[in-house]
Specification:
phosphotransferase system, PTS_IIA_lac/cel, sugar transport, transferase, elongated, Methane Monooxygenase Hydroxylase, Chain G, domain 1, mainly alpha
Length: 109
């Protein structure tokens, strides 16, 4: 594996992990009732996932141009990490929205 490929894979892992962490922070903020902070964390998660997706897209484009890459456990881990984080963002946004609705209706203390 080339150093450039390895660095790209690590960027996917880094930004995917950052995105997932922001999602967990968003849920924690919503649980406390700070919905502005929760929404900011969701926005930050989205930015991180966009960064990760740009690196993923570069890998896909290179392969489409004929630069074949042997899959490695590290690459599979990066893809798994990113997809998990993307799912987490969708779920976190829903959870924040639910907490906010419950708060409006007097259900969260």
């Amino acid at each position: 594996m080339s150093e450039e490929l390895e660095q790209t894979i690590f960027q996917i892992i880094l930004h995917g992990g950052n995105g997932r962490s922001f999602c967990m922070e968003a849920i924690a903020e919503a649980k406390k009732g700070d919905f502005a902070a929760a929404k900011e964390k969701i926005r930050a998660a989205d930015e991180e996932l966009i960064r990760a997706h740009h690196f993923q897209t570069a890998l896909i484009q290179n392969e489409a141009k004929g630069a074949k890459t042997e899959p490695s456990l590290l690459m599979i881990h990066a893809q798994d990490h990113l997809m998990n984080a993307m799912t987490m963002k969708d779920l976190a946004a829903e959870i924040v929205e639910l907490y906010e609705k419950m708060n409006i209706h007097g259900g969260v203390n």
